[in-house]
Specification:
Elements (H helix, E strand, L loop, with lengths): L3 E9 L31 E6 L12 H4 L3 E6 L3 E6 L4 E5 L31 E8 L2 E8 L3 E8 L10 E6 L1 H4 L7 E6 L9 E7 L2 E6 L4 E6 L5 E7 L8 E6 L3 E6 L4 E6 L13 E7 L7 E6 L3 E6 L4 E6 L11 E7 L3 H4 L4 E6 L3 E6 L4 E5 L14 E6 L8 E6 L3 E6 L5 E5 L2 E6 L3
Antiparallel strand pairs: 1-6, 2-28, 3-4, 4-5, 5-6, 7-8, 8-9, 9-10, 11-12, 12-13, 13-14, 15-16, 16-17, 17-18, 19-20, 20-21, 21-22, 23-24, 24-25, 25-26, 27-28, 29-30
Length: 434
């Protein structure tokens, strides 16, 4: 029997799509203890780049923009949006069922080739679904797979544990077979006796973090093989985990005390530990930048760290300018000279796509740099950009969230009474100012 319950299939009209991670939208407080209300003011979500191909921008349909989006996650060319009404809206590339639709439904009339993007025109197909009898508490999107974290709606004695469910490409999902699945399938973590607090996905890898700070991963291993059973990535000593960010063959973890740990391949300097370190298959503390970290972001082969002095550091591959520095690659973190382009404003939030990067500063402006193929930076043209440059298309608009997919950048625009609230330097939720 299927857990999946579809709500509807729709099309977006003319203009744009969306992305972002670690965000929560809450309406203006009325002084009560209520935390969720229907958001009446529409939110506009822009996407620049390959989603779908050939379009510079798309705008989400008004009906969806009023649902109250609590989180947005993006893969290489698909988007998941979690609503306050416990539905997930999925759109974009569904080649492997990562949008929770049967890919065979996209076959053209002569049954020759599937429509990889599910669109032959400017309309982008969207599907809303939920998991029967479960509350969806988190979502994540990898290259060609997706994760939802669910918990039983009826929880006797508070004993039910949250569990991840995956769908899409068999590598990213860690399926034992080579067959993709479009219906959410539970991931069993042997011996787990505590709640999972968050799930993450990137490239062909999946991760889950428990309330005590344990990290489990499955899907593609750091050597390129398939890890079917979730495996723990032990830290040197127990500590809380604020965020995980997943690159192509490496990953990053940010602790509650601002320490950064990296693991995986260091061919391009992705670990930020220096040229002498080749590879590491255990988490190693990255103590090669000053201060402590407030935020992290991992691209395919590069990473960013924002420290407590609002200084931004990059390391890894810079072949497309994604590090915003002078050299072709950096084995140790190098500071990005953002003062040259932002005056007195300071970076507050950072993001990475496969080969591009983005930040939002204290003035609410969006800057992007790196690979600009198909206009994924939101900057006209297709030439790579080697230092942060302001995105003029969203200047003067109230940015409440940003996300980088593998091949695109997305921006969530909202009412002026919504603002980004940070907890220990990372976005926890979006609430209006008092």
């Amino acid at each position: 029997m299927s857990f999946l319950r579809k709500l509807c299939c729709c099309c977006i009209k003319d203009n744009e799509i969306s992305v972002d991670e670690n965000t929560r939208l809450l309406p203006k407080s009325d002084g009560s203890n209520a935390t969720v209300k229907k958001v009446e003011s529409p939110f506009t979500v822009y996407a620049f780049g390959v989603i779908p191909p050939g379009l510079h921008m798309k705008i989400i349909q008004d009906d969806f923009s009023k649902l109250g989006i609590s989180k947005i996650a993006c893969g290489i060319a698909h988007v998941l949006m979690l609503t306050e009404t416990n539905f997930v809206i999925a759109a974009g590339n569904n080649e492997f069922g990562q949008c929770a639709r049967n890919p065979e439904e996209a076959l053209v009339a002569n049954d020759e080739e599937p429509e990889l993007q599910d669109e032959s025109s400017k309309n982008l197909r969207m599907t809303a679904f939920n998991i029967d009898k479960f509350k969806i508490t988190d979502i994540a999107a990898g290259c060609y797979h997706s994760i939802v974290l669910v918990k039983a709606e009826i929880n006797y004695n508070n004993t039910a544990l949250a569990k991840p469910m995956v769908f899409g490409h068999p590598m990213g999902c860690g399926f034992n077979s080579n067959t993709s699945k479009h219906e959410p399938t539970e991931v069993i973590i042997d011996g787990l006796l505590e709640n999972i607090s968050a799930v993450y996905a990137g490239q062909m890898r999946s991760m889950a973090v428990t309330e005590s700070g344990k990290i489990y991963y499955w899907g593609e291993s750091f050597t390129g093989t398939k890890q079917v059973k979730p495996r723990e990535l032990p830290l040197p000593h127990p500590q809380s985990i604020k965020k995980v960010s997943i690159g192509k063959m490496f990953s990053m973890a940010l602790t509650g005390h601002g320490k950064v740990y990296t693991i995986g391949d260091n061919t391009y300097g992705e670990l930020g530990l220096g040229r002498e370190t080749k590879n590491s298959f255990t988490l190693i503390e990255m103590n090669t930048f000053p201060g402590h970290a407030l935020d992290i972001a991992a691209g395919a082969r590069h990473g960013l760290v924002l420290n407590n002095d609002s200084r931004l550091y990059a390391f890894g591959d810079n072949s497309e300018g994604q590090c915003g520095i002078q050299s072709a690659r950096a084995y140790l973190p190098v500071e990005i000279q953002v003062k040259n382009v932002m005056s007195k404003a300071k970076p507050e939030m950072i993001y990475c796509g496969d080969a591009h990067s983005a930040l939002v500063n204290s003035d609410g402006e969006l800057f992007t740099w790196g690979d600009n193929t198909a206009g994924r930076l939101g900057i006209r043209g297709s030439m790579s950009v080697f230092q942060p440059r302001i995105v003029e298309d969203v200047m003067g608009k109230h940015i409440v969230a940003v996300g980088c997919g593998g091949l695109f950048t997305s921006v969530l625009i909202g009412p002026e009474n919504f603002t980004i609230i940070k907890k220990r330097g990372t976005v926890e939720r979006l609430i209006p100012p008092k």
